[in-house]
Amino acid sequence: MTAFVLGVDAGGTSTRALAVGADGSVLGSGRAGGANPNSHPPAEAVANLAAAIRAAAEFPGRASACVIGMAGTAKLTDPEVAALFDRTLRDVGLDRVLILTDAEVAFASATDAPDGTVLIAGTGSIAGRIRKRRMVATEGGYGWLLGDEGSGFWLGREAVRATLAALGHDGELGPLATAVLAEADVDATDRRWAWRRLIAVTNAEPPIRLARFAPLVAVDDPAAADIVERGADLLVRTALATREPGEDTPVVLVGSVLGPGTEVGERVRAKLSGLEVRTSSDGVYGAAWLAAVEAFGEAAARRAG
Predict the structure, then answer these.
(1) What HEC string does 80-132 produce?
(2) Neighbours of 231 (CB within 10 A)
(3) Which positions fall inside the ATPase BadF/BadG/BcrA/BcrD type domain (predicted)?
(4) Do residues 129 and 117 lie in contact, with contact meaning Cβ atoms separated by under 8 Å?
(5) What number does CATH give the domain 4-113+282-296?
(6) What rounded mean pLDDT belongs to the chain?
(7) Read out DSSP for 167-226?
(8) Under a CB-based contact definition with an 8 Å cutoff, are residues 134 and 125 in contact?
């Protein structure tokens, strides 16, 4: 019977699972809907988690270990939710399960180093200090109301603020303001009306929807460049706040804002040029490798994502 482990990346949008053999080969994969119990009803989240795991392990045998990287682990502090997850995982035949944060598996997907820093910037932002492959300290991650500096939310909000400032003064509207008004479906013929309308449109939506304006900072415009620069500074400051003086460990970048080729991502890489900077390839591979380490030890074969 084949020895294997399971790695799972349980996100808010989708859940992916990999069954990996002792030699690092992928034996099966599964995909289902989101399994973040903060953004989905817990019953729906565990159903999606179970579906992805079952699809990945459609062959005889029991996994030697399973590591689940989950967004929304805080919800498991609720005893009822934790019990629901425990029952579901036992029902799918798992008895050796380690649930980690999505940040921890993302770090492991990019490096086999036990220590370092993970910086995440998608809709929100957070940095973590990693020691022995576990996150032991954080900076940021407070959500849109209290923080998330440099995140997609922050970038989008700053893009709208810059547009409102431009509408409030004479002069031609630049590419950023034009793009924001088009995204918001606001006619700029009457600038005072457009100013009021943009405020009304953005306030009529959930605040986190401001993140939809974040990609617009890629336009060639001094106002957009200023937002990119400030956002990158804030993210670098967040990352460095988790590091000890003189620390020589990798920094792993995660999330859509920090992807290779993105304006903010490239500025962050430039500002961290004195450090070893890596990009998370795919959290599910990090989860699978961490499961292999749990089952087979530090010499476990590693598969690149």
Answers:
(1) HHHHHHHHHHHHCCCCCEEEEEHHHHHHHHHCCCCCEEEEEECCCEEEEEEEC
(2) 26
(3) 6-291
(4) yes
(5) 3.30.420.40
(6) 92
(7) HTSSS---HHHHHHHHHTT---SSHHHHHHHHHHHHHTS-GGGGGGGGGGGGSS-HHHHH
(8) no
Integer Cα distance of 292 and 290 in angstroms: 5
What 3-state class would DSSP assign to 28?
strand
Please give the structure tokens belonging to residue 268: 């962050």
7 within 8 A of 287, measured Cβ to Cβ: yes
pLDDT tens-digit map of 102-137: 889 999 999 999 999 999 998 889 999 999 999 999
Torsion over CA: 127, 128, 129, 132 (sign): negative
Residues of the chain with CATH 3.30.420.40: 4-113+282-296, 114-249
User: What is the number of residues in the chain?
Assistant: 305
Instruction: Encode pLDDT of 208-230 as tens digits.
Output: 899 999 999 999 999 999 999 99
